[in-house]
Design a protein that fits this description.
9 strands, seven-stranded mixed beta sheet
């Protein structure tokens, strides 16, 4: 079993998918702590409802981003976190956390990286006119959406897609895919070598 510390900024739908996968016995993990940088994040309510320690850590209450990230690191370590899971956490995670959890920080991106990195992956793919986009689970580093790729799944772009309709199908894939990718870690099946992740 692996222990997860989950970082969120919003509704927490991927957090809920992880909670549900654990409850269903599909993910051999426990969530030790959920941290949000936004007080109004509905994901905090989801965590509390599931009996998980849920914290709002306000970046504005710290003198520097270094101090804020040091607080995140301290909370995650105190909770006994094995893997840090970003589930809609809309900030670049500081090296204070990344260095404390080397190759143990995961992120989810709504596009097939390295295509369409950044905060608008769905809209950017739609605007570009690609016929296929998708979802990527990757190990995070100090550059947005650059780390080694753990899992990917394609999602077809339909001729009549809007950003909302495409986002809905992408989120369905995310909710199924993120717990499965984390289970690879629980089963020690993911082996990182440079930019490549070998599964087996």
């Amino acid at each position: 079993m692996i222990t997860l510390g989950i970082l969120i900024s919003g509704s927490g739908s991927n957090l809920q998918a992880i909670i549900d996968a654990i409850a269903a016995g599909e993910l051999d993990a426990r969530i030790a702590i959920v941290i949000s940088n936004k007080q109004e994040a509905f994901g905090l309510e989801r965590a509390q409802k599931a009996g998980i320690d849920a914290r709002f850590v306000d970046p504005k209450s710290f003198a520097s981003m270094h101090e804020y990230n040091e607080e995140l690191r301290a909370l995650l370590q105190a909770a006994g976190t094995d893997y840090v899971v970003m589930a809609g956490y809309m900030r670049l995670l500081g090296t204070e956390v990344l260095d404390a959890f080397p190759q143990r920080v995961l992120n989810l991106h709504p596009a097939l990286l390295p295509s369409f990195p950044g905060a608008h992956g769905i809209a950017d793919a739609l605007e570009y006119g690609v016929k296929v986009t998708g979802v990527t689970v990757h190990f995070a580093d100090e550059v947005f959406d650059r780390g080694a790729i753990l899992a990917q799944e394609a999602v077809a772009v339909r001729e009549d897609d809007t950003e909302d309709s495409l986002a809905e199908r992408i989120h369905e894939v995310e909710h199924r895919m993120y717990p499965k990718a984390l289970q690879l870690l629980a089963e020690k099946k993911a082996h990182i070598s440079g930019r490549k992740v070998r599964i087996g």
